[in-house]
Design brief:
It is built from 15 helices and 12 strands. By secondary structure, the protein is an alpha/beta fold.
Length: about 350
């Protein structure tokens, strides 16, 4: 089997951070790899297109069969697909789960497979979601009181135990993608009833992963509610006063996805009632406002949107892409394809 012609476009800094030597060696077994450095400033949403850079990028891509882009690399636009007639596979290492650096519609029209391996960070995010849920059920502030010498007597432990267990509780997930699938694996030994709200998730997953899909209102009544939804026009302020009012007394609400999914004034008002526990890794704005009342509330645990940032996650973006290419080169379909269903979830349509 002949080797693939494969190009990688990124910044010099991110080349060293993301492209591990062992993974490059694996990739070299199936592809002749060339790396071209760019320095396109961008965020998760806005990747500017400079005509001169685009023309240079088109020349780089014109003989490639595979093109991989990530931080610092240009956007893969329709002119790139028009120039790269041999292109069959385009991937992004960390495209916020929706291949933001790739014109997915242009790729579809050109018959090019699109793959995004952002789910490398989904694994640690699911771990952090579980940790926040456990801390909420353990009513973390009460432990801090004990450490601060606000002692509890033996009688207090028996009449008002300072913690609850996750085992047997109902767990609701708002959004059921890569993070939710991984979290579902972690919850197996806890024997939870799992309810998920996600209009875009294939309903076949219900039987395969032993979850029940339900309305947002129903999911909000679970003992533990975990927000895993992406930031789209449809999800912004999706969880407001009406939804938060559905939380049962003592419920735990966790947000490890995007702060914009939750209406902040409604969140503050609900937390002030002190009848639920909150574990918040995602905020709006970010960083969380210095004067936010949430910073001072005993029933709120805050972290600075670091759920996906681990030593293991960053190099794994490329490791997963290499695995996808090995799989595809051997004749199987990539697992992390950007399909019409994924695009619909991103657009909120």
């Amino acid at each position: 089997m002949s080797k693939l012609k494969l190009g990688i476009a990124c910044s010099a800094e991110n080349r060293d951070l993301y492209l591990g030597k062992e993974d490059l060696a694996r990739l070299a077994k199936i592809a002749d790899v060339v790396i071209e450095e760019y320095d396109v400033p961008s965020d998760w949403v806005n990747i500017p297109v400079d005509p001169q850079v685009e023309a240079k990028f088109a020349r780089f891509a014109e003989d490639l069969e595979v093109l991989i882009v990530f931080h610092g690399g240009p956007r893969v636009t329709k002119p790139i697909f028009d120039a790269a007639k041999k292109l069959k596979f385009v991937g992004e290492l960390e495209g916020d789960r929706f291949a933001g650096r790739i014109d997915v519609q242009a790729a579809k029209e050109a018959g090019v497979v699109v793959v995004d391996t952002t789910h490398s960070s989904s694994w640690p995010v699911s771990e952090w979601a579980l940790a926040l849920a456990l801390m909420g059920l353990r009513e973390h502030a009460r432990f801090r009181d004990i450490i601060a010498n606000k002692a509890m007597s033996h009688h207090d432990y028996r009449t008002k135990p300072p913690a609850r267990e996750l085992t047997g509780k109902s767990v609701g997930m708002i959004g059921f993608g890569h993070i939710g699938w991984r979290l579902r694996e972690f919850l197996v030994p806890f024997r939870n009833e799992i309810l998920a709200y996600d209009p875009y998730a294939p309903r076949e997953l219900a039987d395969a992963l032993d979850v029940n899909f339900a309305s947002l209102e129903k999911v909000m009544t679970c003992d533990v509610v975990i927000c895993l939804a992406p930031d789209t026009a449809k999800t912004r302020d999706m969880i407001g006063e009406k939804e938060l009012a559905l939380l049962t007394p003592g419920a735990v609400f966790v947000n490890v996805s995007r702060g914009g999914c939750v209406n902040v004034p409604a969140l503050i008002a609900k937390a002030e009632k002190n009848d639920a526990w909150f574990g918040l890794d995602a905020h709006n704005p970010e960083p969380i406002a210095v004067d936010s009342p949430l910073r001072q509330m005993r029933n709120v645990f805050l972290s600075p949107h670091i759920g996906g940032m681990t030593v293991e996650a960053q190099p794994r973006f490329f490791t997963l892409m290499v695995e996808e290419l090995e799989r595809w080169h051997a004749g199987a379909e990539p697992r992390a394809q950007i399909t019409d269903r994924v695009v619909a979830g991103r657009s909120g349509k």
